[in-house]
Description:
Elements: H1 26-66, E1 69-73, E2 76-77, E3 82-99, E4 104-109, E5 116-117, E6 122-127, H2 129-164, H3 170-202, E7 205-207, E8 212-217, E9 224-225, E10 235-252, E11 264-268, E12 277-288, E13 294-302, E14 313-320, E15 327-330, E16 334-337, E17 340-347, E18 350-355, E19 357-361, E20 365-370, E21 378-379, E22 393-397
Parallel strand pairs: 1-22
Antiparallel strand pairs: 1-21, 2-15, 3-10, 3-14, 4-6, 4-9, 5-8, 6-7, 8-10, 10-13, 11-12, 11-14, 12-13, 15-20, 16-17, 17-18, 19-20
Helix pairs in contact: 2-3
Amino acid sequence: MPVDEKPQVVNNQPASGGTEPPRRLRPIVVVPVVVIAFIVGFFIYSGIRTRTAAAKTLARDTREMAIPAVNVISPQMGAPAQEITLPGNTQAFTDTPIYARTNGYIKAWYVDIGARVKAGQLLATIETPEIDQQLQQARADLATAEANYTLAKSTAARWEFLLKTESVSKQETDEKVGDLNAKKAAVDGSEANVRRLEQTQSFQKVYAPFSGVITARNVDTGSLINAGAGSPGSQLFHIAALNKLRVYVAVPEAYSRAARIGSPADLTLNEFPGRTFRGRLVRTSNSIDPTSRTLLTEVDVNNPTGELLPGSYAFVHLKLPSQVRAFTIPSNTLIFRSEGLQVAVVRNSHAELIPIKIGRDYGATVEVVSGLHAGEQLIVNPADSLVSGTEVRVAREGSEGGQE
Length: 404
């Protein structure tokens, strides 16, 4: 082989078989390293960022959890109307006994208990034989007096004529004129007696004084009747008007301001469960009974159907008016401490304790008469450790003055 011949290359590789790596293999090794480094760096960055965000969130949550959360409500304007229930007795609007105005015997009666009568309706007839005889005698006396008067009148006229001719004396003429005047007075007295007996005789017929219901009949045919109300058993009938009832109520002195004339009053009765009858307070006695310390009050109730009976026991419901501008708040907003009664309100995200004065206690709610203003946010169930200036956050706000 010649010395100057060059070695042949087979498959583009040097024939000498050197150890130098091919240059085209270096990029394949660098890229995975870079990718791995990027991934590692990304995970490290993500971890640091996540831990930082978690730390910030934890700090924020810790600060928020340190601020107590409270539920608040707003006070309601105006206290609910308080109602008192008092016992009362119903009475007929007009109730009267009927007595005889003349002596005699019951000839006939025409109505019995429970009968509805009209004003002027005939109830009974009384037979009066003594009055009839007295009336006949009085009329006879009147006739005698009229005859005497006629004679005295003509006599006095003659003597006055004779006096003009001086045939009789002045004294005798005056006597005749005086006798005429006496006879005239006797006639007037007899006429008055006749009229009295005629009126007494007219009481033989007993009429209803007004429309109503007969609640008692105490006579029968043949019963002896004595005139007037002084004799025992002289009451003939008892009549009551039921189209309207009176209910008398004794209102305690402490609630006397509820007895306002013209105010409505409701009635309930045990015999009418679930029903309410509307009435109206019409008058009071305007004085407190020193014995019972009550104010006598009358309530009128219309009773067109007559279903309410006089003498029934009823319950009268009266509304107590509110005389002050007040709020109503739930009882679970109150704070009882040595400083007095207080409530906690939220102002500028801070709690503030303010003193209040309450009026009436309704149980679940109370009436506040001073210390509150409209639009306040009251804290419900305030903690015992709550003090003024404590930062709070509102968790829930009630829409009305009830308990949350």
